[in-house]
Structures
1.
Amino acid sequence: MPVGRVKWYSLEKGFGFIASDESEDVYLASSALPAGVATVKPGTKLEFSIIEGRRGPQAHAVHVLEEPASVVANTRANADDLATMIEDTIKILDKVGNGIRHGRHPSGADAERLAKVLRGIASQIEG
């Protein structure tokens, strides 16, 4: 299986990219992350398989091998970053709430992404 490190990942957008040791950068969707993992930090070492997506190589069946040395479990984001994440999430929830009022529930993929965002923020607040 290929190995690489996370270049960047956006919890809000639900995707990022891996700098693969074997090939070009690989797209990383939130749906490819292991169960219980809401986000990954830049520098996280991952093992993954590659499938060919519409826009190129895409990570599949991702396993976290090693987190960056500077990341400690339960470390909170700095206050400004956390405040920004919460404000962005409020905007997303407001949009979802308005849609639900009009009988439009989020699609399965959108609902899953929103749930991961909420779990990520909850873990930062509980940290």
2.
Amino acid sequence: MTPFHIIGHAGSGKTTLITDLVRHLSEKGIRVGSMKHSAHVHELDKPGKDSFCHRQAGAVPVSMVTETMSAVYLPRTPEYTPQRLLDLFYAQVDIVLIEGWISGPYNKIEVWRKDVGRPPLFSSIKQVNAFVSDDSTAMDDGAGAGGQKIDCFQRSDLSGVVDFLLARA
């Protein structure tokens, strides 16, 4: 299992890139998992529903199972970190695409759009190894934080991004 962070400002296209990569990698027979990391506090369950009420009463873990899906609700504790979830649930996949978790320990790909109106993150975030954008003016020198070389891809070059991932997986 090789995790990669897909990072960028809100509205930069992270989710769209991840879904495109998942489709492309899956078509190649690569087993892909994904994780969405949010730095914000918000409810994942629907308040008032049975699983929500079970959690409010103190049950840990709480799971919900339907004919086609299952979900396990766990509190965010030192025991259930993103890393621990990767270790527990993603061992059988080849690549994990993590949307966010910008402080996480894995190699990162930044998605950037000029229209978002914010500067790229690569100059201040370590381990950004690739930059994906349709705005070619964003990367002048190909160097990120600490001077490491960054591979640059046009957003339309999905095959190039996939080859990048596979070379590092």
